[in-house]
Write a structure and sequence with these properties.
heterodimer, A: mainly alpha, 2 strands, globular, B: alpha/beta
Chain lengths: 345, 389
Amino acid sequence: MDLTIVLILLQDGVVNGAIYALLGLALVLVFVVTRAIFIPQGEFVAFGALTLAFLVNGKVPGTVNLLVIIGILVFVVELLAALRSRDWSGLPKTLAWSVALPVALYFAAPFIASTTTPLWINVIFAMALVVPLGPMMYRLVYQPVAEASVLVLLIISVAVHFAMTGLALVFFGAEGWRTPPFMTGDVHLGAVTWSAQTFFVLGTCVALILALWIFFGKTLYGRALRATAVNRRGARLVGISTNMSGTLTFTLAAAIGALSGMLIAPVTTIYYDTGFLIGLKGFVAAIFGGLVSYPLAAAGALFVGILEAFSSFWASAYKEVFVFTLIIPVLMWRSFSAHHVDEEE
Amino acid sequence: MNISQSFRLSALVGAVALALPLIASAQIKVGITVASTGPAASLGIPERNTVALLPTEVAGQKIEYIVLDDGTDTTRAVKNMRKLITDDKVDVVVGSSVTPSSMAMVDVAGETKTPMISVAANAKIVEPVEGARKWVFKTPQNDQLMASALADAMAKQHIKTLGFIGFSDTYGDGWLNVMTAAAKEKGIKMSAVEKYGRTDTSVTGQALKLIAAKPDAILIAGSGTPTALPVRELKSRGYKGIIYQTHGSANNDVLRVCGKDCDGMILPAGPLLVADQLPDSNPVKKTALAYEKLYNAKYGAGTMNTFGGHMWDAGKLISTAIPLALKTGAKPGTEAFRSALRDAIEQTKNLAASQGVFNMSPTDHAGFDKRARVMVKVVNGKWVYQPDL
């Protein structure tokens, strides 16, 4: 093992770690606002990457149909809620984003899906297809049980994870896909060659982390989310809608997941079930931050990525063992250091 | 309605209910459990698709196929098999797609005296033919058969040292065992052994270690599109030696994902993969082309996949054995028929299927010889038959 190998492994670890960091951040975000351990986070990675892969290969992805079906379900649920409360004011808005938008995307898809469409249009279209799934999922699955215990939310997350993996298998098939890189070319830095795509991945991660920091620190919506995170009941008393917070959180989580998928799809092959393992490593990272701290989660993610790269060099057969064993001392340290808080405040 | 009337009515209903299964069992039933979801879905889906192409009538007997999904889960495979045998009263079971599930099903086959045809590769499923394995056959080629073909090709290409990177599961381990033995016979040294996971997003560490060991060639033992990742990584890190693969990657999706990085890669495969390039004298060519035509006609041009061929061959074995079994006079749905069917499959001689020629015997329930494998090289993103390797 010489310096070159160390540098290459570090590079590999940092790039993977950056993706885990994004997923870790999304997991922390969802947990603090809704108290749900969002296991399906990884599925957005697979959905984002595979939807893009289908579009650039000139095929219409099944996500298009899924969006229409779930959109209509959301509208029906909202309609029933409106019937019960006799309050019709929110319906036109729901109709617009849960029915009109998916239907418009459904009819636009055959025109976008072609091998000649510029990549960035495909990326935007794929985002438009995958991101609304986040808030729709919140409305259908999580909002009705928003007051349930963490355990119930966890069980529901497991169910959603299995449902989404199954749907992904139906839509995208069992074999893996790759997408063309956002940027081509190589950069020589000392002994190590960096491809432009890795810079793009790292750059996007840093930009996203900064954007999240600004969003939570400086904007009204971001502060509202933080208020909900600190104390749900208190936030509601001062007029912050918990449903709005949940919807916003899931939109962000879906966007982060889908974008991460599109970032790594040119570097690695994505399968319908890839998301789970990536999400799980993001979860290990999130545990580092005790599911509340963004910087600690990001640092944990980098550590997981680098550890993974080095263990794949030294003892490739036990790579996953190293990564997931890591969670045990971290959990012990967290349970000894954190003061106990009652689950129901 | 008085008591005697209601008694008569219920007796009538009971008689009808008893007669129904008799009417239904007048046809032959084939139970199938494959992994159409879960990690082995890339094998199970073409296998399931192939069922729709199998003959529905042989020797005047209708054949009904009942297909279940086991999700690549051993427990579910066994549960499916028990359900097929007890509820559906099938005469033969086909499946499952992977070795662990098939191994677990063997005991059920012996216990219920039901013939079973596995579509998984490992030789242990049918060897040695004794006890419960008397009831078990399999259609894919043994890994040993493929490994010895690889070792022969390596010897011809003057390979002295071999690097190995395989799945960190039974597929990779199985291949490591058979390849180490086959390579040793040809005087090839296994100089570096690495493992990786099917869903890994990076194999940089393993690739660096392999390259550092400087082997003349590297064998990648995996199945489906995950085998493209090490090839790309090795190429991008500047590896110049020959890259070999197993028949697990004989799949057009691999070429799609791998692109030009896979050019020059060499692998053993069933003759079905390059059926149109085989000489006309090859006994497998006709059946293989027939299957390819049927599959592509139903599911779209270029969708045929060699894994489905194993299911097609299982169908061939069954439909060839049925007339023989019927000659014994046993009725479908009975234990006598199942036993007759088992005996008939065991007597299969010179049956040209899509992946080779079957010659079953009381000591060999796999039945393939060297005609069941060819060496293939990837040239410009196409599989090219290599008669000289």
